[in-house]
Inverse folding.
């Protein structure tokens, strides 16, 4: 740069000499002195400044936005270079600025300029204008907070804790797990308000040497490592908390146990509570009551194994925890609890109605009779005790075996007429004021087995929601009933598929339900679809016989299993299993059994033959001779019928134990 100025000056002097006294660009004779170095330096600085100004004047300045995209990739590269150049100039300007800490204007300008320069998401340097802003703490599920005092090892423990307590008074705190690591002191507090109060007195407490106490507070729980030492310490603490007489274990606020003051055993940590469950399963599997109050529990997914590892658990206390939702209890619904305590949990605040709360809990624990120290009404349930033997399923049920013959005869006559080509004789089977109702289930119908023939009288409430329509479709009187039955497709019922339930039998009333299958007889079509039906009949005496006072019929498509078994045995109606079930009453009546198709003996056997038959039946049935003779006598000494009767009664557990006692 001085070289350019020197070249210009020479040219100026030359121009003045040649031009005969004309004034040049720069007259050195008026301001230049070879002996004044300071003036010479000032002159050169002025020339340098003037040169920069001339250069700046040549720049084109425009406020019109420039579109770099028209240059393609080169335009984007040019834009990046300009931005880098501008940012470097700003950085140099910031480094050259002076900061007056007493001037709020300069601080604000500096901070705003720093925020603009800092890239989004990048960490704030330690010397940033807002680097000393206090960090906040927030409440959490566990509410554990770590307090760190840098250089706290220089002062006694009692001094530090006393100064903090005095500074936050009247707020009170309990320091836990106090320890010194290198030059810092660390302890933990459980409550958010205490931790917040400690954070507010940061750099406000005077230490004995005149320094300010630094208090760093953050959300963190004490560290712990699951090892053999931790397991042994937990076993020792749990032994003192177990009551063998009541089979109860009290783990309330387990982390605050005096025996665990130097080791952290927070049960809200999954690893630690799983260790506790394993210890219980190994040493006290007969445990019936467990208290987990005040352990800051908020997740229960890791407790699913309690149902298998503690199978006898019936009482569980979970109060003063942080269980957020009632759905959190789904992990424990396999437990057979009869008492549960959930007081002081956030989930209770979500229920304004107590009955809804009880209902939601009982959905998961149906056997609970005591909830939150309140007795509940006995649950309505169809569960039975494990030691109760559920009777085996029967094809049919008879409330009184005396009505078996009556039911068989009635159904035989009714379906014989119903399956005929003329159903008009059914007028005698219905009462003068009979009522008939038909429902059809079309949920599983397909194109080959549509039930359109029955839809005209369908009273299914899913299809007929109007009450007037349902009443209109109700058939009343024997003429309407039989007229409608005559319009239905011709049928052929399978008696072997019948299941008959006689639920009520009195001299004035008979309540009967028949379930089975039938097929539609179609002359013009080769396919005869199979239907499933259920008929509920109220039968009353009429003259010398009986008639139907009320009938409800339900028709739907048959299942695949019914199709496979339908019409396989073409035996007569008398062989249908209508009355092959024993009476459930306590009366000493002889059960009516399905008789095998065996002809009666031609003549009565002699005494020698009877003795051989008794011995053979006793050997085959394991009964004694007296009961074997009695069985043969009641079957008219028909050995096959006696054998069949013994097998049927033995299946029903109707044979007394004394029949197998041999003298």
């Amino acid at each position: 740069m001085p070289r350019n100025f020197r070249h210009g000056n020479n040219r100026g002097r030359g121009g003045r000499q040649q031009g005969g006294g004309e004034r040049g660009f720069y007259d050195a004779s008026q301001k230049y002195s070879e002996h004044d170095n300071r003036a010479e330096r000032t002159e050169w600085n002025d020339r340098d400044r003037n040169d920069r100004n001339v250069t700046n004047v040549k720049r084109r300045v425009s406020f019109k936005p420039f579109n770099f995209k028209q240059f393609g990739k080169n335009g984007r590269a040019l834009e990046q270079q300009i931005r880098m150049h501008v940012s470097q100039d700003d950085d140099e300007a910031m480094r050259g600025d002076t900061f007056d800490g007493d001037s709020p204007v300069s601080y604000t300008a500096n901070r705003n300029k720093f925020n603009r320069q800092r890239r989004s998401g990048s960490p704030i340097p330690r010397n940033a204008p807002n680097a000393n802003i206090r960090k906040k703490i927030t409440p959490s599920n566990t509410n554990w907070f770590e307090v760190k005092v840098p250089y706290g090892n220089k002062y006694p423990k009692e001094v530090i804790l006393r100064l903090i307590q005095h500074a936050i008074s009247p707020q009170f705190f309990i320091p836990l797990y106090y320890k010194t690591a290198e030059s810092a002191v660390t302890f933990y507090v459980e409550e958010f308000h205490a931790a917040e109060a400690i954070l507010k007195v940061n750099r406000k407490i005077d230490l004995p040497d005149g320094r300010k106490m630094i208090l760093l507070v953050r959300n963190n729980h004490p560290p712990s490592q699951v090892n053999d030492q931790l397991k042994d310490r937990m076993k020792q603490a749990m032994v003192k908390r177990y009551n063998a007489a009541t089979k109860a274990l009290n783990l309330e606020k387990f982390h605050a146990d005096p025996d665990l003051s130097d080791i952290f055993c927070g049960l809200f940590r999954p690893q630690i509570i799983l260790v506790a469950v394993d210890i219980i399963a190994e040493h006290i599997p007969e445990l019936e009551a467990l208290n987990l109050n005040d352990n800051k529990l908020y997740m229960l997914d890791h407790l699913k194994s309690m149902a298998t590892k503690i199978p006898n658990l019936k009482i569980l206390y979970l109060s003063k925890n942080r269980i957020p939702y009632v759905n959190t209890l789904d992990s424990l619904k396999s437990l057979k609890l009869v008492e549960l305590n959930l007081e002081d949990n956030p989930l209770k605040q979500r229920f304004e109605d107590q009955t809804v709360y009880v209902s939601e809990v009982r959905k998961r624990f149906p056997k609970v009779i005591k909830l939150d120290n309140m007795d509940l009404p006995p649950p309505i349930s169809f569960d039975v005790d494990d030691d109760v033997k559920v009777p085996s399923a029967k094809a049919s049920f008879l409330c009184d075996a005396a009505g078996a013959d009556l039911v068989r005869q009635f159904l035989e006559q009714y379906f014989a007429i119903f399956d005929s080509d003329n159903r008009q004789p059914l007028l005698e089977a219905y009462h003068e004021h009979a009522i008939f109702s038909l429902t059809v289930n079309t949920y599983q119908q397909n194109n080959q087995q549509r039930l359109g023939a029955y839809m005209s009288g369908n009273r299914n409430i899913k299809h007929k929601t109007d009450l007037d329509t349902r009443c209109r479709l109700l058939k009343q009187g024997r003429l309407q009933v039989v007229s409608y039955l005559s319009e239905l497709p011709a049928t052929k019922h399978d008696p072997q598929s019948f299941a008959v339930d006689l639920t009520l039998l009195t001299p004035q009333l008979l309540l009967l339900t028949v379930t089975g299958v039938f097929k539609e007889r179609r002359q013009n079509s080769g396919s005869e679809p199979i239907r499933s039906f259920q008929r509920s009949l109220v039968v009353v005496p009429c003259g010398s016989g009986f008639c139907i006072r009320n009938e409800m019929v339900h028709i739907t498509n048959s299942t695949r299993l019914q199709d496979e078994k339908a019409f396989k045995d073409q035996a007569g109606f008398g062989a249908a299993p209508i009355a092959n079930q024993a009476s459930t009453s306590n009366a000493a009546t002889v059960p009516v059994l399905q008789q095998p198709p065996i002809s009666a003996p031609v003549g009565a056997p002699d005494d020698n033959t009877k003795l051989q038959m008794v011995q053979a039946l006793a050997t085959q049935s394991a009964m004694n001779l007296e009961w074997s003779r009695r069985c043969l006598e009641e079957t008219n000494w028909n050995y096959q019928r006696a054998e069949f009767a013994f097998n049927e009664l033995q299946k029903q557990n109707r044979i007394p134990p004394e029949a197998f006692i041999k003298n």
Summary: The radius of gyration is 50 Å. The mean pLDDT is 77.
